[in-house]
Amino acid sequence: MGKMRAVIVDDEAISLQRLKRLIYDSAEVELVGEAESGDAAIDTIRRTSPDVVFLDVQIPEVDGFGVVECLRNDPPPLIVFVTAYDEYAVRAFKANAVDYLLKPIDSERLSACLARVKKQVSLLRSERGSSRSTGFKKERLVVKCDRSYKALRLRDVSLIEAAGNYVVVHTPTETFTVRETLGAIEARLHRGKFVRIHRSAIINVDLLAELVPISHGEYSVVMQTGQTLTMTRRYREALMDLISLSK
Known about the structure:
The protein is an alpha/beta fold. The protein contains eight helices and 15 strands.
């Protein structure tokens, strides 16, 4: 199956280093990122797309449950809550956590957790692999509009926006209103071509025309189709990474 990709989120240096050492001792896990605050966690998770996140509950800016809420429309990683308090357990499992670890974590407890996570990761990878098994699915975005289905060429999709309980998909000549979540559509997109620039907007990087700095880390995003949007600071790094990789 290959190694599971993991991110650790903890603002306590001692706890973070201990969990890192335990993970490094495991031959099944690759640590791809770490963060010490909620905002940094959201950015890191979106940038690295890990299989699993070891997430402390009490962290600055946005707590662990807030991080999960911010990611609810994204293709979700598995969440393992890590905390010194057992009072959050019920809430954690209501948030669909795959496990709940109490500090200080020992190697035996972590091994049991990783075994559980591995089963879930294997299942998810199998499902994602089958959904990408044909070239048609890789090159098309199939959406249901009214009573029919539209197969849109991904290279023609410039912008996808959330609109209440709907999503609006833009091409140079048409728009399609779809009753889906933005996260559900994002899960079917090519990660190297599409990126979220705002909580409610995803763009096709190939159709990006210009980035204009505004203020406080925000940018005006100008598309080749003439559409202009605002990219918030939280999503800047993911877009910049894609741009640099495409050079």
